[in-house]
Amino acid sequence: MNLELVFVLVGTTHSGNIGAAARAIKNMGYSELRLVDCCGHLTKDALARASGADGVLHEAKRYDTLDAAVSDCQSVIGTSARDRHLAVPVMACREVANEIVSDTQRADSPVRTAMVFGRERSGLSNEEMDRCTRLLRIPCNPDFSSLNLGAAVQVVAYECAQASNQVWVTPANGLTDDQEAVASGASMQHFYDHLHRIMVTTGFLDPANPRHLMRRIKRYFERNRPTEKELNIFRGILSATEKPFPPKKPEP
Ligand code: SAH
User: Fold this and answer.
1) Which segments of the chain does DSSP mark as H helices, in order?
2) Could you list the residue range(s) of the whole structural domain that residue 152 is in?
3) Domain co-membership, 50 together with 105
4) Do 151 and 45 meet the contact criterion of CB atoms below 8 Å apart?
5) How far apart are CA 18 and CA 43, in angstroms?
6) What pLDDT sits at residue 38?
7) Closest by alpha carbon to 184, among 65, 101, 103, 126?
8) CA 145 → CA 24, 80, 96, distances in Å?
9) Could you report the per-residue pLDDT of 72-116, keeping only the tens digit for each?
10) Chain centre distance of CA 158
């Protein structure tokens, strides 16, 4: 099975790492590399480390923001060496790979998935992680957990390639219609924005003191992976609260 994977590097500062990532991607049979706010990617260093995966480098697209780079992706998987985030479920690399495979199996069209990698020094920012639907961790020595960027891309690409050759992946629970597509990242973002607006206008959320409310809510929804149809129901409920309420029918 072919997975539609897009590898996104954010804020890379060493062009050699971009070359290493290109090589890793091509080794595992993938080809799409996107660069957000990265250093040059067609340098001598990058081409040397790509070791022949020049095509991936030449085809790589550059973006100003992560949002722009993942706008066409249904799933956005952030990768992180650290367990420090709250909004999005953190899963081991293999689990994520299996989930992508089962999402692809039950969708009627390919599920385009972005794998997002952070800066060499500081990883992804909290805001960038908030943009993700999952956080992926490569399980490793807890006292020395940060892999080189190219190595991290290699492991993730390898696990996805392995998982996509497996046929015994369990389908996700709870869906009555196998063909229902999981909601896209953009739909989820519109839903969160809508929910936030209603929470503020009803006074449920104080924007001056939001605490972790939105992140907790987001974590809940991301854990359950709503489909587009399910999300439309929630959007409908939210929209209904924005209209004047109809007069109550008298009790019989
Ligand atoms: N010092 C940074 C790590 C940067 S390593 C930090 O503490 O966050 C550069 C990138 O490689 C990370 O942003 C992540 O995308 C990836 N990476 C490195 N080790 C990883 C791991 N164990 N699991 C998942 N991704 C990892």
Assistant:
1) 15-27, 44-50, 54-59, 66-70, 93-106, 126-130, 149-164, 185-201, 213-224, 228-242
2) 3-163
3) yes
4) no
5) 10
6) 97
7) 103
8) 20, 9, 18
9) 999 999 999 987 666 788 899 999 999 999 888 887 777 899 999
10) 18
On whether both 122 and 205 belong to a single domain, the answer is: no
**pLDDT at 179 (0 to 100):** 60
Q: Are residues 125 and 200 in the same domain?
A: no
Total domains present in the chain: 2
Q: Which residue out of 79, 136, 137, 160 has the highest number of ligand 1 atoms within 8 Å of its CB and is therefore the one to mutate? A: 79
Report the residue among 93, 147, 154, 155 best suited for mutation to probe ligand 1: largest number of ligand atoms under 8 A from its CB.
Answer: 147
Both tokens of 231, joined, read: 């999300």
Same domain for 150 and 207, yes or no, is no
Ligand 1 neighbours by CB, cut-off 6 Å:
79-82, 117-118, 120-124, 136-138, 140, 145-147, 149, 152
Q: Which residues of the chain have pLDDT under 70?
A: 84-86, 166-179
